[in-house]
From TrEMBL:
Self-association and partners: Homotetramer.
Record family assignment: Belongs to the glutaminase family.
GO biological process: glutamate biosynthetic process; L-glutamine catabolic process
Protein name according to UniProt: glutaminase
Pfam families: Glutaminase (PF04960)
Transmembrane segments: none
Keywords associated with the record: Hydrolase
A molecular function GO annotation: glutaminase activity
Keyword Nucleotide-binding attached: no
Catalyzed chemical reaction(s): L-glutamine + H2O = L-glutamate + NH4(+)
Length: 313
């Protein structure tokens, strides 16, 4: 496999940005939250953290801040597993999570029919892990999540976008409906605080570099490569990578697993997290999305990086 450093030059990464930039015109930004709907779709940035060399290469709009959205589910799940252990957390999700698509109508018979198809990174699972964090930490839960996000992303500047949070909690009716449905089924004990924490964590502002750092931790067996401190146990790290490989990109997870063969997680804010075990962490930002909520230019760019580096799990 080519050395990661050979692709970490500004010139080569900028060439890949130029090659894929036209894809930003073909998708649409998320508009189910009004603040997301005014984001400029013609943006593309990438950061790659070389674990072996402890170096990060960037190109395009790698330093631009954007909403973490669904990628926050990974961080919340990791923190919950660290605090409670993966056996208890997975058991909670298996008992209470239903696998329904982001765009599906909330019908009782639909959710009942699908209740045994567990997706550990979908919205119902995220509400459950958020509720577990709330139970552990009470009103301090978001600060704990924010602090952990800053640590695992090696980015002390990650912060809450208050405007986005207010827009999300007022307009994302699907999540409200799902939360109250889960409470009605005695899956969630409380709703109001869980919704607040859920929307706050989704409204954290990160960069491609933040996500590349997160990917580098996962690629480095749960050890932060910048200070060699273990943050995630080996067993838990393997579990998280497996989940990202199987359910990380919404309804297209199976297709992208076949195409890209890396653990990935996308977010409707345009972010894309990927890790190549023992090699590198990758963070990409491009907010123009396909019909399933995945970044068009971002996925195309990631495919080029994988091809050039000959990255496989």
């Amino acid at each position: 496999m080519p050395c990661v450093r050979e692709v970490l030059t500004m010139q080569k990464l900028e060439q890949l940005i130029d090659k894929n930039f036209a894809e930003t015109a073909h998708g649409k930004v998320a508009n189910y939250i009004p603040i997301l709907g005014i984001v400029d779709p013609q943006q593309l940035g990438i950061a790659i953290y070389d674990v072996d060399e402890d170096e990060i290469g960037t190109a395009g709009m790698a330093g631009t801040r954007f909403a973490i959205e669904s990628i926050a589910k990974v961080i919340t799940l990791i923190l919950t597993i660290k605090r409670l252990g993966h056996k208890r957390v997975l058991a909670e999700l298996e008992n209470g999570s239903a696998d329904y698509s982001l765009s599906s109508v909330l019908l009782d018979d639909e959710l009942t029919e699908q209740v045994h198809r567990v997706n550990y990174l979908n919205n119902s699972s995220a509400l459950l892990t958020t509720a577990l964090i709330d139970q552990l930490m009470g009103q301090n839960s978001f600060n704990a999540l924010l602090g952990f996000c800053r640590e695992i992303c090696n980015d002390p500047c990650i912060s809450l976008n208050e405007r986005l949070f207010r827009s999300a909690i007022m307009n994302d009716k699907d999540i409200h409906a799902l939360a109250y449905y889960m409470k009605d089924k005695d899956i969630l004990e409380t709703v109001d605080q869980t919704l607040i924490t859920y929307f706050m964590q989704s409204s954290m502002m990160v960069t491609s570099q933040s996500l590349a750092n997160l990917g580098a931790v996962l690629a480095n067996d749960g050890i932060k490569p910048w200070d060699n401190e273990r943050l995630i146990s080996h067993e838990d790290n393997e579990l998280v990578k497996k989940l990202l490989t199987t359910v990380g990109s919404f309804e297209e997870s199976k297709e992208y697993t076949i195409k890209i063969e890396l653990p990935i997680k996308s977010g409707t804010g345009g972010g894309l997290l990927a890790c190549a075990p023992q090699k590198c962490g990758i963070g990409i930002f491009s907010p123009a999305l396909d019909q399933h909520g995945n970044s068009l230019a971002g996925m195309s760019l990631l495919q080029d990086v994988v091809d050039q580096l000959e990255l496989v799990v």
